[in-house]
Amino acid sequence: MNTSARPLKGIVLVVMATFAFAASDVVTKHLTMRHPVAPVVAVRYAVNLALVTFILWPRMGQRLWRVERHWLVTLRGLCLAMASLTMGLALRVMPVGETVAIVYLAPFVVLLLSAPVLGEKVGVAGWLGAMVGFAGVLLILRPGGGLDPWGVTMALVNVGFGTAYHILTRLLSRTESTAALLWHTALLGTICFVIGASFTPPVLPVTAQDLGLMLILGSLATLGHFLFTAAYREAPAGLLAPVNYLHLVWAAGLGWFAFDHIPDGMALAGMALVCISGVWAAVRRKA
């Protein structure tokens, strides 16, 4: 086997994964502008659960759902469910590019908390990257930027849940399999949002197009997770981490294509700072 091509393959897989996630953000915005968030995300998680079970259960059997730290796995799943809810609420009233850029505060917060919580070392590069990233988000959130206050609040709440989710993922990755974590988050998200959807039924009729887009949304989210998993089998995390920030580029581009929204100069500068600082911090930390 020619292993020299594996790093490039890993990078290509992450590029595809970030595109899938950005496309799912656009579909989420389109659907949540017409329907409550809970029914939309319920279908997404149900499709995710069905696909993960269908693909992995035949070869893994009971190992697919077997975990050791049940309470932490459940807490992680709840954090992701709340992150999905707040992301949907933010995208409902916010442009895709700016929303994704704000949400990318989470990796910086995880980086800063990794020392006291996980016992990992945070170097000068990490601190500088975090400060520049925060400065970029402040440019996006500046007074007069025209962003919806409720959407901004939901995006910032999402950062909190996303941070908790990523830290729990790092803790649980020491004892649990990636497949089991993926299956449990899909199951818990499906349960939570099916219950939530029963209390917030759609006001407008769910058309065949809407249902098709909900199915596509679940497929895109599942595809993104599988592509990321495959990528990290092909190349080291240090090489792939900077590529994750391509998500911001895809989000801004697809937001312009789908909704004709172009961020203003200050917002673009802020998004660029978030992207550049994240890439630089990831490269320096793994160097």
Automatic annotation (TrEMBL):
Keywords: Membrane, Signal, Transmembrane, Transmembrane helix. It comes from the Bacteria. One of its GO terms (cellular component) is membrane. Residues 1-22 form the signal peptide. The chain crosses the membrane at residues 38-58, 70-94, 100-118, 125-144, 150-168, 180-199, 211-232, 239-259, 265-283. Residues 9-141, 150-277 form the EamA domain. PANTHER family: ACYL-MALONYL CONDENSING ENZYME-RELATED, BLR2811 PROTEIN. This is DMT family transporter. It comes from Paragemmobacter straminiformis. The lineage of its organism: Bacteria, Pseudomonadati, Pseudomonadota, Alphaproteobacteria, Rhodobacterales.
